[in-house]
Write a structure and sequence with these properties.
about 625 residues, six-stranded mixed sheet, five-stranded mixed sheet
C-alpha cells in the first residue's frame, strides 16, 4: 500500500555533501504531524529570536462557520498550485482555505449535525470532532461525521482534497458495517473525538462515548481500506466503556496501531480491554495476547475510581541509549506517566517505568522531542500549567522533571526545531484560558514568546486543540476562525537553508556549511549478505533486508513493486517477507530524517531482484554485482 508523506520544512540530518531542493514539499497530513504523534515540526525559520517576534497575520482572512475541536491540516499543490489549510467544524462544514490569504478555495456541508436526541454529551452541535487525515498519493481527505436524522449515524467520508467532491464508494455508514464479536456499533452511544490514523492503505477511526460513563458504549477502532471501503473491519472492548478519548487518537509505528482505552464499568472484576494500551495489527486485528496489550496492576482500582488511563493518547518515543529504547507513553487521569516497551507490552504488569507527573490529564495530546540535552515529553498539566519531563538513557529508563510553567488553558502542545534537535521551542495555546499563543524554551521552560499584543488575542478557542507549523507560519483553528501567525521574515521561506553545524563542535549558530541529509549506505539480507541488483531469492523462503544507514537517518521506507510495505523507525531498519511470485521485482529503500517516514528524504536505493523456484536451493547473486550507492 502507499505511504503518507509528512514532509516538514527542513531537517538537518545527514551528510554534508547533500543539499536540499529549494522547492521541497511541505505537508501536514495528520494529527501532530506524524504517525508517532510526536507533535514535532522542523522549520529553520523558527529560531529563538524570530519566534520571540511572531505576529498574527492580520491579512489572513480565516473565516469559517462552526465550532472547532480538530487540528487543521496543511496541503500543498492544491488548485492552481495553491497551498491549503484544511479545517473541519462541528457544523459538518469542511473548508480548504488559501494558506497565504485565508480565503476559501472550496467548502462542503455534508449534512445536519446532531443537536438533540442523544442520551448525553458535552458537544453540541455534534458533527466532525476528530482530526482528519489526508492520503497524498490519492489526494483524499478522510474524516468521521455524525449526521442527524431519524437515526443518528456516524459516517466515514473520503473527499477529494483539491475540490471537496465525495470519492466513489464513500461515505461508509458505521452503524451498518461495524461489528465485533457479536457487538454491533451504535452511533446513539458512540462519539468520535480522537484523530484518525492512516497506515498502509487502511484508515483507522477510534471511538469513545459521548460523555463520561453514559450509555452502553465501547472503545472501538474501525478500519476501512481506502481502495475497498466496503470491506470494514472493527475491534471493540469486550466490556462496556473503555473509550478512546485522547485527542491524538490512533498512533502507529508504520505497521501496528496503538490506542489507549479509558475506564470500563460493570466488568465483574475481569479485565476486558479498558485502562490499557492496545496494540492492533492491520485490520484492525487484536491478538488478545499479553504482548499486544498493557494494563497497570491496579487497573480495577482505576476503573472503580473513574481515573482512566486514557487521559492522553499514545505517543511513540525512541530514546537512544536506553534499554528498552523503543517506548510508548501513556498519561493517565491518575496523574501518572507510564512508559511501556513497544515491542512487547506485557499484559497486566508493572510498566518499564512510571512517575507521578501531574494533577490531572484528560483528553489532550502530548508531544515529544530530542535536544542535545536528552529526550523529553511535554503535556498540559491540568488547566494551569505546561510540564516537560526527561527520559533518561539508562537501563531501565527513568522519568525526571525538566520544567513546568504556569499557563492557563487546555490546549495540547507542539514543538518546533530548526534542524531536528537545535532551538527546540514548545508551543501551546491557552485554549479556553487566556486564548493566546505561547512559546517556551524546550530545555528550560524559559519564555520565548509571551502571547503578543492585542492583535494576537484569539477568541473561541476550544480545549485540547493544537496548532500546526508550515513554511514559517503557525496555524491555529478556533470557533468560526483560523488564525495564522508568522515569524518576521516578510514571507514564508519555501525551504530554509539549514543552520550549519561544524563536525567538531556542534553549534546551532555556526556558519556556512552544506545541508546534510539522511542516507542508506548499503543493503544486506539474511544477516550480512549484500542485497544488490541481480540477487536471486527462493520462492517460499523468509528473507530480511536490512538497511545500513548514516547516523542522521531516523526512519526508512521500504517500497516493493510500487507499494510501500513498511516504514521502520527503529534501528536496525529492516523489512521481512516471504516472496511467492516468481519473476523480476523491485525494492526501493528511502531514508528519512524523522521517524515515521517524515521530514526530509535522502537518495533512494533501488534493487532489481528475481524470485526463483525452490529448485534453486540457495539465492545466487549476479556474477557482476552493481554496488549500492554510498553517501
Amino acid at each position: 500500500m502507499t505511504r503518507l508523506f509528512y514532509s516538514s520544512l527542513l531537517v538537518v540530518a545527514g551528510l554534508w555533501s547533500a543539499v536540499l531542493s529549494t522547492n521541497a514539499q511541505v505537508n501536514v497530513t495528520q494529527e501532530h504531524n506524524n504517525l508517532s504523534r510526536t507533535g514535532l515540526y522542523i522549520d529553520s525559520a523558527f529560531t529563538p529570536s524570530a519566534a520571540a517576534n511572531v505576529a498574527r497575520d492580520l491579512n489572513f482572512n480565516g473565516a469559517i462557520s462552526g465550532n472547532v475541536y480538530a487540528q487543521p491540516l496543511y496541503i500543498e499543490n492544491g488548485p492552481g498550485g495553491a497551498s491549503m489549510v484544511i479545517v473541519v467544524t462541528e457544523s459538518n462544514n469542511i473548508y480548504a482555505l488559501d494558506a497565504l490569504t485565508g480565503t476559501v478555495i472550496w467548502q462542503r456541508h455534508i449534512g445536519a449535525p446532531v443537536t438533540s436526541g442523544l442520551p448525553c454529551g458535552n458537544i453540541s452541535p455534534r458533527g466532525i470532532t476528530g482530526t482528519p487525515v489526508v492520503h497524498l498519493d490519492s489526494r483524499s481527505l478522510f474524516f468521521d461525521a455524525m449526521i442527524d436524522g431519524a437515526t443518528k449515524r456516524h459516517f466515514i467520508y473520503s473527499l477529494n482534497v483539491d475540490n471537496g467532491a465525495t470519492n466513489p464508494g464513500w461515505p461508509v455508514n458505521v452503524n451498518g458495517s461495524a461489528t465485533y464479536n457479536g457487538i454491533a456499533f451504535s452511533s446513539l452511544v458512540q462519539n468520535e473525538r480522537s484523530a484518525l490514523g492512516l497506515v498502509n492503505g487502511i484508515v483507522y477511526v477510534p471511538y469513545s462515548g459521548h460523555y463520561g460513563d453514559c450509555g452502553t458504549y465501547h472503545g472501538w477502532v474501525v478500519g476501512v481500506p481506502i481502495n475497498n471501503p466496503g470491506n470494514v473491519i472493527a475491534w471493540a472492548t469486550t466490556a462496556i466503556g473503555g473509550g478512546i478519548w485522547g485527542h491524538g487518537g490512533v498512533a502507529s509505528d508504520g505497521t501496528n496501531m496503538f490506542v489507549i482505552t479509558g475506564n470500563t464499568f460493570n466488568a465483574g472484576g475481569n479485565w476486558s480491554g479498558g485502562e490499557a494500551i492496545i496494540r492492533l495489527q492491520a485490520g484492525p486485528i487484536f491478538s488478545g495476547n499479553p504482548i499486544d496489550y498493557w494494563a497497570p496492576i491496579n487497573w480495577l482500582s482505576l476503573d472503580n475510581g473513574d481515573t482512566g488511563l486514557g487521559g492522553c493518547s499514545a505517543v511513540l518515543i525512541d530514546v537512544p541509549g536506553a534499554t528498552p529504547s523503543q517506548l510508548v507513553l501513556a498519561l493517565g487521569k491518575d496523574g501518572n506517566a507510564y512508559l511501556i516497551k513497544r515491542s512487547n507490552l506485557g499484559g497486566i504488569t508493572a510498566p518499564v517505568t512510571s512517575a507521578n507527573v501531574a494533577s490531572y490529564v484528560a483528553g489532550q495530546s502530548a508531544a515529544t522531542y530530542r535536544t542535545n540535552q536528552g529526550t523529553y515529553f511535554v503535556f498540559r498539566n491540568g488547566s494551569s500549567s505546561v510540564s516537560a519531563y526527561k527520559i533518561t538513557a539508562t537501563n531501565p529508563p527513568a522519568i525526571t522533571s525538566a520544567w513546568s510553567v504556569s499557563q492557563t488553558g487546555k490546549g495540547s502542545p507542539w514543538v518546533t526545531t530548526t534542524d531536528g534537535t537545535h532551538n527546540a521551542i514548545v508551543w501551546v495555546a491557552g485554549a479556553e484560558g487566556d486564548q493566546r499563543l505561547h512559546g517556551y524554551d524546550a530545555d528550560t521552560g524559559a519564555v520565548v514568546y509571551a502571547g503578543g499584543g492585542p492583535n494576537e488575542l484569539m477568541t473561541g478557542t476550544r480545549k485540547w486543540n493544537t496548532g500546526i507549523v508550515a513554511r514559517g507560519r503557525i496555524y491555529f483553528a478556533a470557533d468560526n476562525k483560523v488564525y495564522a501567525f508568522a515569524v518576521p521574515t516578510g514571507s514564508p521561506t519555501p525551504t530554509p537553508t539549514a543552520t550549519p553545524t561544524p563536525t567538531t563542535t556542534p553549534s546551532p549558530t555556526a556558519t556556512a556549511a552544506p545541508t546534510p541529509t539522511p542516507a542508506v549506505r548499503r543493503l544486506t539480507y539474511n544477516e550480512g549478505v549484500p542485497f544488490i541488483n541481480g540477487t536471486n531469492l527462493v520462492r517460499g523462503t523468509r528473507y530480511t533486508v536490512t538497511a545500513q544507514t548514516n547516523p542522521y537517518t531516523l526512519s526508512v521506507v521500504f517500497n516493493r513493486d510500487a507499494h510501500n510495505v513498511k516504514t521502520d523507525s527503529t534501528i536496525p531498519f529492516d523489512f521481512s517477507w516471504t516472496p511467492m511470485a516468481i519473476g523480476t521485482h523491485t525494492l526501493v529503500v528511502t531514508p528519512w530524517s524523522s521517524i515515521g517516514g517524515t521530514g526530509t528524504s535522502g537518495r533512494s536505493i533501488t534493487v532489481n531482484f528475481t524470485v526463483v523456484a525452490p529448485s534453486s536451493r540457495s539465492p545466487i547473486r549476479a556474477a557482476t554485482p552493481i554496488p549500492n550507492p554510498t553517501p
